[in-house]
Amino acid sequence: MKIIGIPALVGSYDNYIWVLHQGRNAWVVDPGQSAQVLDYLRQHDLSLQGILITHFHHDHVNGIADLKADFPDCVVYGPEKTDNAFIQNRVKQGDTVRLNSELEFKVLDTPGHTDDHIAYYNADMLFCGDTLFTAGCGRKFTGTFVQFAESILKLRELDDRTGFYCAHEYTVSNLKFAYLVEPENADLKQRILNTHIRYPELHDGAQSTMGEEKATNPFMRFDTPVIKAKLLARGAEDNAESLFKTLRLWKDELDQSGELDNIDLMSMVNP
Asked: Which of 31, 71, 111, 207 is packed most tightly, with the most Cβ within 10 A?
């Protein structure tokens, strides 16, 4: 199985559309655009068998219509709560999506970013849309902070070896924030030193692993002693919802101020 991240909406949302293919068969995750996906499918003589959707946002679904026009027999899978007429198979936590004899995914409900959000996973890979990013997480829109915290805790239960695939390339900004939150984290410092982002090139394979995210992503570590103490000092209460909310609002504040844009990541770890 080959897994390729195709850049989309570059410069605005900086998405990845994930294409999985084996032999001549292909499946696509969260196509916010279609032209570059169709180009890739044609260049590699692939037949689109299915589309997997994680939530309703336009940058994850706007390419479906054109893909279905070229491949009318492909099946669209998506959350049961998503209001999108293209979804043929609506799924929820506990369901299994079987794409062929060798490829299937279990479904997790992961609301928070949106109230309809789901993730697809198996032992080898997790496609989590905007719930969790490389070294970060999505913003809260139509979900709640208590949902978001619970979703992160669900993802934290997945095996460390599981390959990690999210829908946006925000790694550098997320690492800046992660280091501001937890400069004591040696694993995080090593991750920063080893990070080389080549977006908007095609991305071949996983962006990360669940083990790396658990070790370095502050949103997977919001209740660990060091980060928890800092969040309590910022006014959080000692519960998952409040700790996660305080951390996410801290990141929102820095994003809105533009402060993270002015930080040189390597100078942070090598002052």
From this structure: 31
